[in-house]
Amino acid sequence: MTTSFGASGAAVPNDPKLQIAKALGNFKTASNSLFLLDGYRGFRKSAPCGTSVVRAVSENVKSSTSVDQKRSKVEIIKEKSNFIRYPLNEDLLTDAPNLSDDSTQVIKFHGSYQQYNRDERGSRSYSFMLRTKNPCGKVSNKLYLVMDDLADQFGIGTLRLTTRQTFQLHGVLKKNLKTVMSSIIKNMGSTLGACGDLNRNVLAPAAPFQRKNYLFAQETAENIAALLTPQSGFYYDVWVDGEKIVSAEPPEVVAARNDNLHGTNFPDSPEPIYGTQFLPRKFKIAVTVPTDNSVDLFTNDIGVVVVSDPNGEPQGFNIYVGGGMGRTHRIESTFPRLAEPLGYVPKADILYAVKAIVVTQRENGRRDDRRYSRMKYLLSSWGIEKFRSVVEQYYGKKFEPCHDLPEWEFKSYLGWHDQGDGVLFCGLHVDNGRIKGTMKTTLREIIEKYNLNVRITPNQNLILCDIQEAWKQPITTALAQCGLQQPEHVDPLNVTAMACPALPLCPLAIAEAERGAPDILKRVRAMFEKVGLQHNESVVIRFTGCPNGCARPYMAELGLVGSGPNAYQIWVGGTPNQTLLAKVLFDKVKIQDLEKVLEPLFYNWKCLRVSNESFGEFTNRMGGEKLHEMVDKWDGVMAA
Fold first, then answer.
1. CA 190, CA 201: separation in Å to the nearest integer?
2. CB-count burial class (<10 Å; 0-12, 13-18, 19+) for 537
3. CB-based contacts of 22, cutoff 8 Å, min separation 6
4. How far apart are CA 320 and CA 350, in angstroms?
């Protein structure tokens, strides 16, 4: 078996737009590795690299070292699965309420996780979470109504909008899996690849603007999603007895997938890009346009930005690589990381460039220890120059330098907007993405009555599309009656907040996130009022129940990451436009002690900020030592 070296240390992105060097320059060491677990306390050398790791080898290998190396258990399961069929296809036929350990890994590739309710004591009551695949967050009218029905008939009566523009359907019993899956498939939906070691849902701005750059970004996201969709038919064999639902693919997608001029493919394999082993871990891609960072571009393995000429005609793409959020508590060699510039490609080459990057990760990402299998660790080990050189061999060309771009902004697209084609869209804030109760009933009635298509945003919100002007008032009234207020009536803290589902169903959660977020946000608002901050002022707050970072807390101005029962790590220093990585300020704060930490920080931000300085910018300027001093010496708000 052919092997290559794995990754460990962190690299600091060199894009000046990200302002990393400015924010962290005083803390660099000779190793240039960012020590994140103690955050503001400084930097520490990364763990030694150079561990040999196993690769999935295509026809032409660019560079390798022959070493026999152990593989993770999941790699062996994939190899024996007959392209992600076995033993799931057999376990689904049994009367047991749960799957075997091997099948719980295999079913992830089909878009599902086995779960159980951790609030219940005694024997485990197993169920399954299904996640859809919706490039750009696009959901047809028909599919929305089907998902709404399935949630009531086979789920827990709610729909969950995710941070990757998809639905999650919780509480599906094993005996109902095939019915639910086949219903989604036959209504032009899919869950294929929503989980597992392959390309996940491809993000793009959800706004249905009829602008050239937005339309081109969305088209590109859909083409990338098609390019990296598994081809071996395992999904349809398991759920619809091999009846593949045929949809026409653009010829450029087929051509890019089949091209093997530079040794990217497995010849004569049913999976020409993935082979038997697929990727070392999950893989995430986002596409956007300049200024629009609604997609959290730099948190992705690949970030793609449309570059247009002065007349607004798309000409090509800037590509960024190596982002990722997941880490593990108390293992300092795991870390969140921002994507950094790889280069520019003309628009005709984007699929070939993306494929070359994916293959570089497939061939060189670690397969022995899944904690280090994301592409960010390969970038951190190799550095961008070596990574670019290897990608160029698979791409067959040299990358041009990235084009200059304007500053990034977070865009929520809440409220009413003109699409540009004579109709409107309405962006709806959905707390933590959970559609339930009266809100769910009313949304269905509106979507069904007016035959609306919808889109899911990367901030867990929903956009109603293609609305006639005459429908605006009755829709606004109906939405308000079910609690879906226009953005000016929503607390600004809630507008930008995000939380993962966490307890009770996520097996990885060690603290509350979705269920705990509403109360914590109210407490933060009360702290704002106490220290004299105005109601229109806000901080980007994100919650996760574990360090895996599904709600991208490491990009928030204030990130609460579960570190134990009713306890959180406190991360500060992200920015409102999501271009700077936060840092750990406190390793563990009990939920009842949040005011002791946050109140002095908010008070000093209010008193010491300069101009329109955001909370994240303020905490970066102050530095960790000063912030700790503020907390340690806090005696309460001083009387006026």
1. 11
2. middle
3. none
4. 12
pLDDT in tens, 214-249: 999 999 999 999 999 999 999 999 999 988 777 789
* pLDDT (average), residues 209-213: 98
By the 8 A CB rule, do 442 and 132 touch?
A: no
The angle subtended at Cα 290 by Cα 288 and Cα 294, nearest 5°, is 50
CA distance 445 to 83: 41
Alpha-carbon gap, residue 375 to 381, rounded angstroms:
10
In contact, 50 and 368? CB cutoff 8 Å: no
What Å distances lie between residue 546 and 169, 289, 512, CA to CA? 21, 31, 9
DSSP state of 438: H
Q: How far apart are CA 75 and CA 95, in angstroms?
A: 28
Q: How far is CA 519 from the centre of its chain?
A: 25
The Cβ of residue 538 has, within 10 Å, a number of other Cβ atoms equal to 22
The band of 640, judged by pLDDT with boundaries at 50, 70 and 90, is low
Residue found under tokens 């028909």: 142
Burial, 365: exposed, middle or buried (Cβ in 10 Å; 0-12, 13-18, 19+)?
buried
Can you tell me the distance from the alpha carbon of 109 to that of 462, in angstroms, rounded to the nearest whole number? 26
Q: How far apart are CA 305 and CA 270, in angstroms?
A: 31
The dihedral built from the CA positions of residue 383, 377, 132 and 167, taken in this order, carries a sign that is: negative
Q: What tokens appear for 226 in the block?
A: 């098609």
The encoded tokens of residue 461 equal: 């919100």
Q: What are phi and psi of 491, to 5 degrees?
A: -55, 130
User: From CA 23, how far away is CA 19, in angstroms rounded?
Assistant: 6
Establish how many alpha carbons lie within 13 A of residue 474's alpha carbon, considering only the half-sphere containing its beta carbon. 10
Maximum alpha-carbon separation in the chain: 77
Cis status, amide bond into 87, omega within 30 of 0: yes
> Token digits for 357?
């990057």
Quick one: tokens of 283? 């893989």
Helices (H) and strands (E) in the chain, counts: 19, 22
Average pLDDT over residues 149-178: 98
Distance CA 488, CA 414 (A): 9
Average pLDDT rounded to a whole number, residues 277-281:
98
Q: Residue 280's CB: how many other CB atoms inside 10 A?
A: 31
Point out the least confidently predicted range of 234-248, 293-307, 496-510, 523-537. 234-248
- What percentage of the chain's residues is helix, strand, coil (to nearest 5)? 35, 20, 45
* Residue 289 CB neighbours (<10 A): 26
Task: Sheet containing 138-139: give its strands across.
Answer: 138-139, 454-456, 462-467, 424-428, 415-418
Task: Provide the edge-to-edge strand list for the sheet that holds 167-172.
Answer: 112-116, 126-131, 167-172, 159-161, 434-435
| Distance (Å, whole) CA 561 – CA 331 | 15
Distance (Å, rounded) from C-alpha 159 to C-alpha 166? 10
Contact partners, residue 348, CB within 8 Å, separation at least 6: 252
Positive/negative CA dihedral, 147, 148, 151, 156 = positive
pLDDT, tens digit, 9 for 90 and up, residues 44-102: 233 333 333 333 444 444 443 334 578 999 999 999 999 999 999 999 999 999 999 99
